[in-house]
Write a structure and sequence with these properties.
Elements: E1 7-17, E2 22-33, E3 38-42, H1 49-57, E4 65-74, E5 77-78, H2 84-90, E6 95-98, H3 102-105, H4 112-123, H5 128-141, H6 147-150, H7 160-172, E7 178-182, H8 190-207, E8 210-214, H9 218-224, E9 227-232, E10 235-241, H10 242-247, H11 252-259, E11 308-309, E12 317-318
Parallel strand pairs: 3-8, 3-9, 6-7, 7-8
Antiparallel strand pairs: 1-2, 1-4, 4-5, 9-10, 10-12, 11-12
Helix pairs in contact: 4-5, 5-7
């Protein structure tokens, strides 16, 4: 009998109520992550990936955000029904997040050492000297040069890549059970990017930490993820094991993403998906991808396809009428 998932997102809908319209950022999303697993969440900007992550962390201002439906079960506990005081104990301790924008995620009036040590003292039973030692250790792990000097510096004294590494250090210092990594290597050069991803993968193996990896980089997905969920216009349109996604993508959007990857040939023209992601306040009828889809049928323009297994008994799911 399989164990229950560490995180189970069930029919989650997160909308933003504005003066002008209703912004449907996340629509009936279902995701599960097992302990020790890496799930990659991919899709273009504006597809709802970051809003899904911030919903899990309960870091959206309500209002204007509102959880219209669904549950977010972490170890069986519904985070949407959890008190603010209890969420403060969970955030940074059991669930941590590497934010997409390091420039604005650090407090400019405290040193990076103060900010990492505060997280340790808040969640772990350690003295200040023990917390300082652990902070130096984690800064070294994320490839910060001269951590003994950097620990006393303020965020404005660091480059964007350095700030990103400090954010990663803060996220992993308490050894969370679930790490949400939202574009964790955006500001890093290729060498440091590989070091950080290898570190996260090592921590996952050593501590059985689960990772929700949000990224545009399908190369990273192929190397580090166990499963992939593809999002488009606030919905999961395909979900499968990573090898199945790359070997036999089932949704036209997924095929479009994969065909836009560079190939070995230097003169090969890159393929693109025509059009752009629709604004979540002005979604088309039926399948939201149909205005950009070369394989659309009449049914696609009026009826939303459900996310279902493309073959009975397989974990490979797609929301597309082509597999009806």
């Amino acid at each position: 009998m399989s164990s229950p998932p560490l995180l189970a997102i069930e029919n989650l809908s997160t909308f933003f109520h504005t003066d002008d319209n209703l912004v449907k950022s996340v629509r009936n999303v279902n995701l599960t992550i097992q302990k020790g697993e890496t799930l990659a969440l991919v899709g273009e900007s504006g597809c709802g990936k970051s809003v899904t992550a911030l919903s899990v962390m309960r870091l959206l201002s309500t209002p204007p955000a509102k959880f219209e439906s669904g549950r977010i079960l972490f170890k069986g506990q519904d985070l949407l029904q959890t008190s603010d005081a209890e969420m403060q104990k969970i955030r940074g301790n059991q669930i941590s997040m590497i934010f997409q924008e390091p420039m604005t995620s650090l407090n400019p009036i405290f040193t990076i050492g103060d900010q990492i040590i505060e997280a340790i003292l808040l969640h772990q039973n350690k003295t200040k000297s023990q917390a300082l030692e652990l902070a130096l250790e984690v800064l070294h792990q994320v490839a910060i040069p001269s951590p003994e000097i950097r620990i006393n510096q303020y965020p404005h004294e660091l480059s964007g890549g350095m700030k990103q590494r400090v954010m990663i250090a803060m996220a992993i210092v308490c050894r969370p059970e679930l790490l949400i990594a939202d574009e964790p290597t955006t500001a890093l050069d290729v060498t440091i990017q590989t070091q950080i991803l290898d570190l996260l993968d090592l921590l996952r193996k050593e501590t059985h930490m689960a990772i929700l990896l949000i990224t545009h980089n399908l190369g990273i997905v192929a190397q580090y993820a166990d499963r992939v969920a593809v999002m488009y216009s606030g919905k999961v349109v395909e979900s499968a094991l990573v090898e199945d996604i790359f070997a036999s993508p089932a949704h036209p959007y997924t095929r479009g993403l994969l065909s836009s990857l560079p190939t070995d040939g230097p003169s090969t023209r890159l393929k693109t998906i025509p059009g752009s992601v629709p604004h979540p306040a002005y979604l088309p009828e039926g399948c939201a991808f149909h205005p950009r889809c070369a394989e659309k049928m009449d049914k696609c323009m009026v009826t939303l396809p459900p996310l279902e297994a493309i073959k009975v008994g397989t974990p490979h799911q797609a929301a597309c009428w082509l597999h009806e």
